[in-house]
């Protein structure tokens, strides 16, 4: 039996055309995918940070931990956030004995560590800082680099705050000495997110765009 001799393969020209098409698609698609992945990581980290603040403040308002802290520590290549609180009995004892209720960074002051998370994102400060909440905002205090920081305008000209943290990529932070820039004039680029809070623990999220901070 004669074998079918009409067997065709790819010509060199056809292979070169296919390789060229794959190269073009990759050149266009890979940067877009990388940008999407950076935004996804930042957005997810922002959501988790918001959840940590909301969760610890809820315990404060309910009275289970009447005085709480969000401790923020920027590291090389990551950002660590710890939430911790003072038990009701320890809180009451300090008040009755006349000892101050303050936003101490020392872990020995706090009776409970609630969450300890490390995120692969940069923030706009380069030293440890803290936010402390209490029932009805009585002992609210900020400590470190986030105390008396520059005010930023959010979604409306009349809406400005100095109570925030900015999350960005390390690529963006490298252009500003390892910290996230706080404005476009200082080099702030997409993707970037901002978490704002009030002394009573209300938390809002914003996303950076060319037009400024947009509420999420």
What does this 3D model show about the protein?
This protein has one domain (33-215). It has three helices and twelve strands. The protein has helices at 12-62, 88-97, 170-174; strands at residues 67-75, 78-86, 112-119, 122-123, 129-134, 141-144, 152-153, 160-161, 164-168, 192-197, 203-209, 212-215. A five-stranded antiparallel sheet has the order 3-2-1-5-6. A five-stranded antiparallel sheet has the order 4-9-10-11-12. A hairpin with a 6-residue loop joins strand 7 (152-153) and strand 8. The longest helix is centred in the N-terminal third of the chain and has 51 residues, at 12-62.
List the keywords:
216 residues; alpha+beta; 5-stranded antiparallel β-sheet; 12 strands; elongated
Query: Strand fraction band?
Result: 25-35%
Mean pLDDT: 88
Helix content: 25-40%
Regions with little confidence, pLDDT below 50 for 5+ residues: none
* Domain tally: 1
What order do the strands of the largest sheet run in, or round the barrel if closed? 3-2-1-5-6
The tally of strands reads 12
